Amino acid sequence: MGIVVLTMKASVIEMFLIFLVTGIHSNKEITKKIKRPKITVPQINCDVKAGKIINPEFMAKCPAGCQDPKYHVYGTDVYASYSSVCGAAVHSGVLDNSGGKILVRKVAGQPGYKGSYSNGVQSLSLPRWRESFIVSEGKPKKGVTYPSALTYSSSKSPAAKAGETTKAYQKPSVPGTATRPVTLTQTPMTTAAKASHTTLPKASPSVAFTTSSPRPQPTGHEPRELDLWSATTYTSSQNSSSANPGIQRQDSSGAAFQRPAAMDVSLGCRVDLSFVIDGSSSIGKRRFRIQKQFLVDIAQALDIGPAGPLMGVVQYGDNPATQFNLKTHMNSRDVKAAIEKMTPRGGLSNVGRALSFVTKNFFSKASGNRGGAPNVAVVMVDGWPTDKVEEASRLARESGINIFLITIEGAVEKEKQYVTEPNFASKAVCRTSGFYSLNVQSWFSLHKTLQPLVKRVCDSNRLACSKTCFNSADIGFVIDGSSSVGTSNFRTLLQFVANVSKEFEISDTDTRIGAVQYTYEQRLEFGFDQYSSKPDILNAIKRVGYWSGGTSTGAAINYALEQLFKKSKPNKRKLMVLITDGRSYDDVRIPAMAAHQKGVITYAIGVAWAAQDELEVIATHPARDHSFFVDEFDNLYKSVPRIIQNICTEFNSQPRN
C-alpha cells in the first residue's frame, strides 16, 4: 500500500514538473513575440512631396533613383514641405540613390530656404513656406508607434502606384448627419520674420479643417477662415456700380472706403489689357478672393467694350494659363462673371514663366489683339517671384508690351536674402521711372491702387513700351541709280529695299517708308506720308524706274535730309539706309556729319566697287554696326537679318528711365 502511494505521488510530481516547464517555455515565446513586433514601413514614390502627407511624423521607404533632378528639393537640412521627401533624403545624405528607409518629422515653416549642392542633388532656394520637415535615418524611436499607412491630403495618393494603402481624415460623426472626408491642414507657429508683415488673421486652433488646396501655404500667407467678402461686409458681387456705387467695406484699420464707381476713362482709353494674377500657393484662398474683387472693380471702372478697353486674365503658379482672352468678353458684366469663377492654380510664383507665356500667346490676333491699341500687362505678385524675370521682361518690352507690376506685401529687409532676383521689380517693368511700379504694404490696401492704375494704363502718351524697333521709325532709303549699277542689278537692289521694309509694321502711326534715287541728280520717289500700308509700300518700291547716270552720294544725303527727314515726325526715330556700288564723285564727309547732327541714324551698304572708307564715314558710329559690304548685288539679301538685328539692338539699348 505504501508503495502504491509513493508511485502516485511520483506521478503527480512528474506531471507538475512537465506542466511547469511547458508553461515557462510558452511564456518565453509570448515575451519574445511582444519584444519583437513586426513594423510595416509604407513605401512612397520619388515624386511624393512632404506637404501631401498629413502625418506629423512617419517612417517611409524610398525607391531607387530619387537623385534625379526632376524631383525638386527646396532648402538645406531643413526642407520646405513642397520638396520631394525622398529627394531631400538623398540631398541630406540619409540615403543614397539606391533608396531605403527614412524617418520624417514635420517642423514649422521657415522665413526662407537656401539651396545647395549635396550628394548629387541640387536643392533650390525658396521664399518663406508654411511647413518644413527634417529627414533622419529610418530607425524607430523607442515607445513611438509609426503609421503603417500614410494619410494623404487627397484621396488620390501618388503612392498608390507603389501599392500602398492610403486613408483620409474624416470629421467626427454627428448623429443624423452624413460623414464626408475633408483635408486636414496643419497651421504651424508664426516665424519671427513674419511678424514684420501685415498679415491676415488666422484661425485660433493649431489644426484646422479646410477644403482648400492640398498644397501648404507659405509662412505669412496662411488662408483665413474669415470671409472678407461676405454679404455683411461687401455686397458688390450682387450689385453693379451703377446700381449701388456707395456700398462700403473696411480696411484693416476699420476705416471705411467706397467701392469705385465707373470712371470716365473709357472714352479716351483704348487698350488691350492683360491682368497676370498670382494663383500660387503663397496667396491662399482669401487673398485670391481679394485679388479677384480688385479685378472686378477694375473692369467696372474701365467700362469694358469693343470701342474702349478690352481685358483678359492669365493666372500663374507653377505654370501659367489663360483664364479668358481679349475677345472672350465684350462688357464689364461678363468679365465680372468670368472672374468670379476663377480658382487658384497653386504652386510656386513663377512670374518669369508667366511673362514669357503672355509674350508668346496672349497678345496675338487669334486672342483678340486689335493691333492699333497699346498692349498692357499688369502683373500682380504676392511677396516676390520664385523664378527670374529679367530676360522674359526684356522680350516682352521688345514685343511692345507695357508691363506694370503690383507687388503686395513685398520682402522686408530680413527676407531679402531669400529673394531669387534682387531688384526684380525694376527689371520687370517697362520703364524704371516709377510710373509702372506700385508697391502695396497690405492686401487690405490693394483697393487704393485702383484709380492710379486705371489712369496710368489709359495714358497712351506715357505707354513707352508700345513703341518697338518695328513700329516707331521713319526709314528713308537713298538708292544709287548710277550707270554702273545696271538694269538687272537695280531690280535686285529694289528687292533688297522691299525685303527690309517687309520687316516693319507700316502705317500712319507706326513705321513709315520713303525713298530717294540719285545719280548726279536726285529724285524723290515717294515721301513718308504718301503710303500708309505695307502692300502699298511694296508696290511703290516695285514701280521705281531705273534712272542711270553718275554717282554724287554727298548731294544725295543732303537732298534726303531736306526732302525726306525734314518732314519726319518728332516722335519717330530717323533711319537712313543708303545703298551704293561705287565711290562718290563729291565729298560725303560734311553731308554725313550733318545727318548725324540732326539725329539721323545712317546705315551704309556698299556693293562691288563701293569704297569702304566712304561707307565708314557715312555710317553712324560705331561704323562696324552701321556699315555693310557685299561683293555682288545677288548677295544683298544676306545682309537683311543683320541690319534688322542691329536696328533693334540699338533701339532696345536705350535707357529705361
Automatic annotation (TrEMBL):
It is found in: Secreted, Extracellular space, Extracellular matrix. Keywords: Disulfide bond, Extracellular matrix, Glycoprotein, Neurogenesis, Repeat, Secreted, Signal. One of its GO terms (biological process) is positive regulation of cell-substrate adhesion. Signal peptide: none annotated. The keyword Secreted applies. InterPro entries: ECM_Assembly_Org, LCCL, LCCL_sf, VWF_A, vWFA_dom_sf. Residues 180-190, 196-214, 230-255 have a biased composition (Polar residues). Residues 153-255 are annotated as: Disordered. PROSITE patterns: LCCL, VWFA. Binds dermatan sulfate and chondroitin sulfate. This is Vitrin. It comes from Trichechus manatus latirostris.
